[in-house]
Amino acid sequence: MKTYLITGGAGFVGSNLAIEFKKNKQNIRVIALDNLRRRGSELNIPRLIENGVEFIHGDIRNKEDFQDVGEADVIIECSAEPSVLAGFESSPEYLINTNLLGTVNCLEYARKCGADFLFLSTSRVYPIKIINSLNFTETATRFELSNEQSIIGISSKGLTEDFSLNGSRTLYGTTKLASELIIQEYIEMYGLRCVINRCGVLTGSWQMGKVDQGFVVLWVAKHYYQKPLNYLGYSGKGKQVRDILHVKDLYRLLEIQINDMDTHNGETYNVGGGLERSISLFELTNLCKKYTGNKVPINSVIENRMADIRIFITDNSKVTEKTGWKPEITVDQIIEEISDWIRENSEKLRPILA
Q1: CATH homologous superfamily of domain 128-159+204-244+274-313+328-353?
Q2: What is the value of pTM for the model shown?
Q3: Residue 246 pLDDT
């Protein structure tokens, strides 16, 4: 029986992936390793156990914690500190120790086990200033990328893997990019089989959304609990755009990659919802009204927030060409699902999301 280790396994992405793998592959052992640092992650432990996933309270910063796992055949590394704003107002020590040194500990564990390694990186490896210098147009509800651009790796369809990496990107993005570089060396030096997926905005049920990470769930939750919101920056109109990807669509891609690691070994893929699953805050507000039935006051803040970007859309062309994978779950389906989840777990989630 093969063993799958999912680091950050009680977090939003990790817990959902662990449960999906266990549901769809009954003949594997799935272990979720998590330090439970993020508020709300403790709510996922009963879900994991009910679905046959083993939970281990451990921290990737401590290489000794891997001893409790034993050996694994597949490692899915999604244990990062996910906040784009991490390190701005406090010490970056936890961020660096988790997102960089923690990755090294995971790689060393994978090397000793001979395990396949799937790394969830981020679209935030791409530099902020270059992204914000892109040509765009403004419509009634959103900003849109222009097809005419002066640099490679960008079109109206979004950013490709050829987009420049030259520039600053926040410490969060830097730790993830540094991890990518170390992974490439482990592939070359030790023959480890690894895939890097630069994920855009991931979302779905059981995400404990905050302003700096998980904004889709946060937006729905504020509407459900009837709490005020802010359109931050870019004239305060809510026209910033992101593409969003349901975590179950990410699961389908990881299954494809795991089943054909020889083909995908060493590859780096941009992975997101793409243009068809992109949405502005203004548009998201209207969907939240539709599915929660509530309207909330939204304040306009003209000044741009530190490290924010106007538009990010993932161009999935490479990963689709190599795997045949495309996102399936629509934006409407995502917002409806999140609304139903909050409604069904209203009192349990209130202290965290309200």
Answers
A1: UDP-galactose 4-epimerase, domain 1 (3.90.25.10)
A2: 0.97
A3: 98
